[in-house]
Design a protein that fits this description.
The chain has one domain. It is about 55% helix and about 0% strand.
Length: about 90
């Protein structure tokens, strides 16, 4: 018997599962949106600063966070601009 647990967003799981062929049966458990999954601007700014401070480019930092939290690129990019303005 083989058992595997996958967690993630629907988009992430769809991408991952479409690349493999499944055999047998599987169970899918879904959860609705909750405030626990909301990512605040202050947290995003903090993470942007950490990533950029580690030597990565602003572009790479934006890309990393949009992927990590499934957010719009525009929102994270705008926050990265705010960080740049605050530092000058």
């Amino acid at each position: 018997m083989h058992e595997e647990i996958q967690r993630g967003t629907l988009r992430h799981l769809h991408t991952k599962m479409s690349d493999i062929s499944t055999k047998g049966e599987f169970v899918l458990i879904l959860s609705g949106f909750s405030e626990d999954h909301y990512v605040s601007d202050s947290l995003l700014k903090e993470e942007l600063q950490e990533i950029i401070g580690s030597g990565k480019s602003k572009r790479d930092a934006v890309k990393e966070l949009t992927s990590k939290y499934q957010l719009s690129k525009r929102r994270v990019y705008d926050l990265s601009i705010e960080i740049s303005v605050d530092e000058t």
